Amino acid sequence: MKSEEYQTYEQVINTNDKIEESRTKQEENKIKLLDILKTSENIIENDEVIETLKSIQEDYAQIEEQKSILEGEFENFQEKINGFNNLSQKIIKIWFILENLNVSHKMYR
Question: What is the mean pLDDT of residues 71-76?
Fold first, then answer.
């Protein structure tokens, strides 16, 4: 069974991959739109231009949604990492205290 931290990490990676896919699709739509604009005389009445613009707008909305999800997941992941950092700092302090006990009394050797 995967740990919660690993699952959070996987979610961050998967969301980031989705954002990259959406950006790629958006770039393809931009290229398509530019090609249409180059060849079209009346772009206002061109249904293909309108559909491409709608697609770009939908892709942008998806990217923004996925970005906000990713930011939330990343903050959650960062909080967990900070928790581990705090724990490790406390363990280090305990180690150095215990390590030096032998200096204070021979029983701790």
Answer: 81
**85 phi and psi angles, rounded to 5 deg:** -65, -45
Token digits of residue 30: 């931009």
Average pLDDT, the chain: 77
Tell me the pTM: 0.47
**Paired tokens of 22:** 């959406």
Question: How many CA atoms are closer than 13 Å to the CA of 106, on its beta-carbon side?
Answer: 0
Cα Rg of the chain (Å, integer): 27
Measured distance CA(104)–CA(106) in Å, rounded: 7
**Cα 54–52–47 angle (5° rounding)?**
95
pLDDT band at 66 (very low <50, low <70, confident <90, very high): confident
Helix (H, G, I), strand (E, B) or coil at 44: coil
> In residues, how long is the chain?
109
